[in-house]
Each structure stands twice: as C-alpha cells, then as structure tokens.
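Attaching the record inline, Q. Sequence:
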Amino acid sequence: MYYERGPNFGATSYDDVISACATIFQAVTLEGWVDQMYELEKTTSKASSIIFYVLVVLIGSFFLVNLFLAVLFDAFARQQEDELDA
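Structure, as predicted:
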C-alpha cells in the first residue's frame, strides 16, 4: 500500500531517521502507540506489528522508567551526602 504522506500528517512514520526516532519515542512514552500500531498493520502483517510494538513498549518503557529512577536516586544520594558533610 502506498501513502503519499505518512500517518498524522507525516509526523509519525519510518521514512527517515528523525521521523523514526520521534515515532519510537512517542511509542515508548505510551502516548498514541496503539494508533501507530494500527497504522503499521495496514502495511505489514498484523502479527508482526503487534509483536514489534509490544516489545517496544515493554522494553522501552521499562528502560526509560528505570533510567529516570536511577537519576532520581543518584540525585537523592548526592543530596544526603552533602547534608552529612555539612
């Protein structure tokens, strides 16, 4: 199937690296990933799009959440060290 313009007026697509990174980031932040999955189903098989997006959401979301928590924990630990030193 050929589309002259990508879904969401070209905002979410895999046509170039920038758009692909933005699309993956949108899926990882759990904002509109289901709509992206349904759009991908139109051009590929249903099973492959479901597997791809479920893996992206599970792995990506858990990775981002753990990274965010690690940064918060590190900042909290530094704050405690500064208070103990003072």
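The mean pLDDT is 83. Residues 29 and 54 are 13 Å apart (CA to CA).

More tomorrow.
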